[in-house]
Input
Amino acid sequence: MKVLLVSASPRREGNTFTALSEVAKTLNQEGIETEIIEIGSKPIGGCIACNWCKQHPEEHRCAFNNDMVNTISAKALEADAFVFGAPVYYGQPNGSAVSLIQRLLYSNGAAFSYKPVASVCVCRRGGADTSYQSLNMMFEMMNMPIVTSQYWNIAYGREPGQASQDVEGMQTMRTMAHNMAWMLKKFHGEPTSERPEKEPWTPMAFIR
Ligand SMILES: Cc1cc2nc3c(=O)[nH]c(=O)nc-3n(C[C@H](O)[C@H](O)[C@H](O)COP(=O)(O)O)c2cc1C
Output
């Protein structure tokens, strides 16, 4: 089984990547293959409702080939589950994340429906929970089972990599990964425990 993890941050190995790496590491420990894709800093335009994809469903892709959308779309056909991570910009997922996900789901929905998905958001201070809900809203109308955790899948940090110091945030990522692994094994009829693995809670408030 394979999980595709997509970081919509333009910053290479930023905090979104840090959070997704924690998820991937845990999935690997569970025996699940992973691939992390960083979309990079090239722009991703929004859906223009041209409906080319609806007229060519056998193509499983967006009409526009000039950005990362179709690269990810092709990989989605082979993936069993997804994690989409986004940095928070102005209290929302960054624009590229929204453009990317909307075009993927509209142009190649069959590659996503009925496959588990988790949203991840990172921010410096505020807006992660609203952003997390925004991402989930898109998956919730695609028949995609949403993978949750012990808390919303959010982590805090400003400079690249700082999120690794968010002890509770990183634990939230690991718990979500265990839950996703457990769900995938149940779906695919593989042996697994009655309940997913769970660590003792490591809380972390803003002011320690
Ligand atoms: C344009 C812009 C807007 C931002 N808006 C917010 C915000 O509303 N709330 C917040 O807490 N952080 C905000 N940030 C900070 C980022 O969310 C934060 O640095 C995050 O760790 C970036 O993730 P990355 O390293 O994966 O890119 C903003 C950053 C940028 C560039």
About this structure: The two ends are 39 Å apart (CA to CA).
